[in-house]
Amino acid sequence: MSNRGLLEQLERTTETLSHSLSNLIKYSSVAKERDDEDSGEQHELPESTAKNSTSGLMMVNAQTAQLIKGIQDLLVMTRSIREKWLLTQIPDEGVDSQSELDYEKCSQLLKQWTQEVVSSEE
Amino acid sequence: MPQPEFIQERLESLNAVDNQLLSTLLHASQAVGTIEELKRGNENMKSQFENHIRSFYGSLEEATVALRREIRHLDENVGTRLLPINVNKKAVGQDNEKMREQFEHLEHEAS
After folding, report:
1. Where are chain A's structural domains?
2. Element (H or E) spanning B42, and its range?
3. Given CA atoms B67, B70, B75, B79 in this order, what sign does their dihedral have?
4. Facing residues of B82 across strands?
């Protein structure tokens, strides 16, 4: 059933979301700390500093993107649920039977008309 | 097109979920903003940072719980209010409407 899939997706996305904010903060502090250490010890900025801060920055970017992507996924999910409600609903019985056809009157009308048409042709 | 009450209710609660998701993102951005301040040595942002993180997780939790409830509603109503998925809905009742229209026309002509 596709709703099972929706539930699983919800769980997965929520987990990623809750991890990605904590990761974001973790990586941002790693990048900063290393930055501080290195700039405190030596001022010539060795290659490793650039590497560390670059990878830290990339991780921060990736986690931010993941955060936004997760929220987007959940928004898409609410949208698809809404579409399901609107597009696959079974119409109410009451609306359909608003005015039942008066079958006797209809057959009488039809007879009358066939008589008129046939008699006019003769 | 006006919807039945139950479906209207579902749509409204889905809207509320959407708002909660957006506020989750807002809280995340606020938390990142405050941690930036914290790095600059602004110590009194600490409680604000904590608040933002707390409200991030709070709204994430609320949105998830509400969404799960919505999925359950969806599950319960397949077969009663909803067609099973992957069925293309036809415009049912259209032929009856047409017939009614034609008979009205006939009656009008006959009189």
Report:
1. 1-36+50-89
2. none
3. negative
4. A89, B78
If one counts every other C-beta atom within 10 angstroms of the C-beta of residue A84, the result is 20
Q: Is A101 within 8 Å of chain B by CB?
A: yes
DSSP codes joined into one string, A105-116: HHHHHHHHHHHH
Residues of A in contact with B106 (CB under 8 A): 109-110, 113
Q: How large is the ipTM?
A: 0.71
Q: Where are the domains of chain B?
A: 5-85
Decide if pLDDT at A40 tops 50.
Answer: no
What is the pTM (predicted TM-score) of this model? 0.67
AA letter at B74:
L
In 3D space, the residue among A33, A59, A24, A31 whose CA is nearest the CA of residue B27 turns out to be A24
The answer to whether B68 and A8 are in contact (CB under 8 A) is no
Question: For the domain bounded by B5-85, which CATH number is listed?
Answer: 1.10.287.3490
- Spell out the residues 6+ positions from residue A53 whose beta carbon is closer than 8 angstroms to its own: A31, A34, A35
User: What is chain B's pLDDT, residue by residue, as a tens digit (111 residues)?
Assistant: 577 788 888 889 999 999 999 999 999 999 888 888 888 877 788 888 889 999 999 999 999 999 999 888 888 887 777 766 555 556 666 777 788 888 888 888 876
Instruction: Kindly report the nearest CA distance between residue A102 and chain B, in angstroms.
Output: 10
Q: How far is A72 from chain B (nearest CA, A)?
A: 9
